[in-house]
Amino acid sequence: MPSPPAPAFAAGSSSASTIAADTETGSHELTISGYSGTKGLGVGKFIRSSVFSIGGHSWCIRYYPDGEDKERADWISVYLEREDDASDDVKVRFRFSLLDQVGEAVPLYTFTSDVRTFTSENIWGYEDFIKREDLESSSHLKGDSFRISCHVTVVNFNVAERNTLLSPVPPSMDLHLDLGELLKSKIGADVKFKVGKKTFKAHRSVLASRSSVFKAELFGFMKEIKKATQIQIKDIEARVFWAIMLHFIYTDSLPEIDEDDRSVMAQHLLVAADRYSLHRLKQISEDVLCKFIDINTAATTLALAEQHGCRRLKEGCLNFLKYPGNMKAVIATDGFGHLTSSCPSLLHELLAKLSP
């Protein structure tokens, strides 16, 4: 009777493989010179940029001066197109930005995609990149010319197989989960915070490791706080302090926030983050607020940005106020009264920005 076939690998060894996601990044700057001459090309009609190479593939930008379709006839649309004829699919993340006069990306007109799959036939981009009237009334169109930047990251997957003795795979990083459980269990908690009618227990060492302000208060020169078992927190809502302490200081993340409450919550979080020197949380809050700038919020948001040193948020508000009609509408809001009383020095800067 013949013996059974030998196993593919000897006893004591096994197979393993590695999937490596290698990325290659590049950018292409497209200048639209003689912009007024490109208008009237027709809805759905486009002009291609020159071809550029990133990640071993060829690309170009499609510029639609009259919009990609009839519903976007008042908009400028931009798309990224793959130019080579290779049959393989390509995973790509890209970002389109309108550039200001010094070559910096304008936050209100910067759009970053999720990872997209490009074949030799499909295109991806933004049909509502910027309204023509908004571009024409902005300082970003100068001498009938403006610039767009396209930042492209190509992801290539490489698979390598090897025969080896397998070592145990380390578990995923779960420090934030452990710290969250520590706070939830209150084991070893050595400080209490009284915020309104609510009380929160926490750990001095964790707070001090994440915030220089807490470090100074809990271990520094403020002796009355160092010895206190309960600390009164004023001028911060309980839910805001809870979000900072429970979901950010301990887990480096924020809790789920209702869409209708995101703008207001982001304002509170920005103020609290600045107070406790939580720089990453401050930047997250600033990014959220940039997306909510409108007639009703521009003045109060501008005052907030000025008071807490938020450069990008301030620039976003000033750019919004440059558009025809926006400034007049904002002046009629209650927020403008708050702006003039709380930050009178901003009015001179605002007038300088809006002057021809």
From TrEMBL:
Q: Please name the SUPFAM superfamilies in this protein's record.
A: POZ domain (SSF54695), TRAF domain-like (SSF49599)
Domain MATH, by residue range, is 25-152
Q: Name one Pfam family in it.
A: MATH_2
| UniProt domain BTB: residue ranges | 189-258
Domain of life according to the entry: Eukaryota
**Record PROSITE patterns:** BTB, MATH
State the family named in the UniProt similarity comment for this chain: Belongs to the Tdpoz family.
| Protein name as annotated | Uncharacterized protein
Organism whose genome encodes this protein: Urochloa decumbens
